[in-house]
């Protein structure tokens, strides 16, 4: 897998989302934010996430949908339970994934981050196939951008967001994600040891 100059991943299915815009002038993509999502909550394999990110979610399709149908959100990528990769927004553009957020004293993380959604819930383990795809995607992103940190949504929006949750094994990610020139394990969520306890 590789990510081209426009920020398109070569092996991703493309499902364009209108929920994006230009990054601020001079913005450098140096953060990856890992999320967890399932629609309806706790159900996998449907088209709810794709419909949400493309503004086609039917509010009558599920009781929960009525509470979120008006949202205008997206992420750059979604990794399905089987490891399939979907891209909604080119990385050169700003996806609307982190909301009110800050990291290392910088607010508006959407300006300088790539958002990766994993199909899942906070309390269920993510799959081996998802970690494999995430490894390939991170490797491709690291070749293209000067990524400094890989963190969870809960890290950039503490108290407001909890994903990807305890079901995400940060230790496993640290063991598989490596920079093309050297080791990137130090860049992966420094608080990962909290999940290992």
Give a nutshell description of this structure.
By secondary structure, the chain is α/β, with parallel strands linked by helices. It is built from six helices and ten strands.
Describe the main β-sheet briefly.
Answer: 6 strands, mixed
Order of helices and strands: EEEHHEEEEEEHEHHH
Structural shape: globular
Q: End-to-end distance, in Å?
A: 34 Å
Number of strands: 10
Radius of gyration: 16 Å
Number of domains: 1
Order of strands, main sheet, comes to 1-5-4-9-3-10
Commentary on this structure:
Helices cover 21% and strands 18% of the residues. With 197 residues, the protein is of the alpha/beta class. The chain has one domain: Lysozyme-like. A hairpin with a 5-residue loop joins strand 4 (77-79) and strand 5. The radius of gyration is 16 Å and the shape is globular. The N and C termini lie far apart (34 Å).
Helix and strand arrangement:
Elements: E1 13-14, E2 20-22, E3 31-37, H1 48-53, H2 65-68, E4 77-79, E5 85-87, E6 93-95, E7 102-103, E8 106-107, E9 113-119, H3 128-144, E10 149-152, H4 153-156, H5 170-176, H6 193-196
Parallel strand pairs: 1-5, 3-9, 3-10, 4-9
Antiparallel strand pairs: 2-6, 4-5, 7-8
